[in-house]
Design goal:
288 residues; mainly alpha
Length: 288
């Protein structure tokens, strides 16, 4: 099958249909559309066989399950009254992702000795924790943050897809592009809806978009040729998305929602540019 259909066409179409179907009845579950799009991409590329349990299959398992675990943790916070306990539970998704990232790269880590173990594991775990924590923080904001959340999810997925493609990991890049296509479908549904109804993305959508691409990037630093410094650049994507909510950064505010989203995405893409340059420099000229 054509890779463009596997990585873009099929995930976009499936996610669009699911999102449109869920929008009138379950707006808080539209994240299922992204999970559905990713699932279709997995079926078309890697398949669903779980044995042997390779790094890619670990990523697939975590990407399909951890968004729901993170959502349950976020929902449990609502029932708590203690502020410090709320903050503690809100850090658990980041800790879960860091642990998942370590699990994925563990076959290589365990072959290292001494300080080499920490040099390999620490950047990967920190990237997973920081990225998911920043993305979750965007999702928890009460004001209208649709553009910031959408730009963060879309740019993080596309940046991961481009950099992993340059790092000579075709499968990882296809899965990352599938998440970006599925996220794009959800964004389209959001733009077609009323501005008040889709003032922000639900937490399941936020995590469903961020978890797989975060794990794909971390794995690519070990199993492909993605430089660790690329993770540092990509970790700034949620920060740049958060800066969109600060008034001095709002230099342009178009009336059209889609044009405003483009402007926001261009702003959030700034840290992705050095990430692409670093990946390109590490690989040398790549023939596509």
């Amino acid at each position: 099958m054509n890779p463009a259909i596997q990585a873009a066409g099929a995930p976009f179409l499936v996610s669009l249909v699911v999102a449109m179907a869920l929008r009138p009845f379950l707006p808080g579950g539209i994240g299922l559309a992204i999970i559905g799009g990713f699932f279709i991409a997995v079926l078309l590329t890697a398949g669903l066989t779980l044995q042997p349990l390779t790094a890619t299959r670990k990523i697939i398992i975590c990407s399909l399950l951890l968004p729901f675990v993170a959502l349950l943790l976020e929902l449990s916070v609502v029932m708590l009254h203690s502020a410090w306990l709320k903050r503690l539970i809100q850090t658990l998704p980041a800790l879960l992702l860091a642990t998942a990232a370590l699990w994925i790269i563990w076959p290589v880590v365990q072959r290292q000795e001494g300080i080499a173990i920490w040099l390999m594991a620490t950047p990967v775990m920190l990237y997973a924790a920081v990225t998911i924590y920043g993305t979750g923080a965007l999702g928890r904001m009460q004001k209208q943050v649709f553009n910031a959340q959408a730009a963060n999810a879309l740019v993080l997925a596309m940046g991961t897809g481009v950099t992993t493609l340059i790092a000579a990991s075709a499968l990882y890049s296809q899965l990352a592009f599938a998440v970006s296509a599925a996220t794009g479908a959800v964004i389209v549904v959001g733009l077609l809806g009323s501005k008040e109804k889709f003032a922000k993305l639900d937490m399941l959508t936020v995590y469903a978009a961020a978890v797989p691409v975060t794990l794909l990037a971390t794995a690519a630093t070990v199993y492909a040729k993605l430089p660790v410094l690329v993770l540092l650049c990509l970790a700034f994507v949620p920060l740049f998305a958060g800066l969109l909510l600060i008034k001095p950064v709002k230099l342009i505010k178009p009336r059209q929602r889609w044009l405003e989203l483009i402007v926001c995405s261009l702003w959030v893409s700034i840290p992705v540019l050095p990430a692409i340059w670093l990946a390109w420099r590490a690989m040398g000229p790549v023939s596509f």
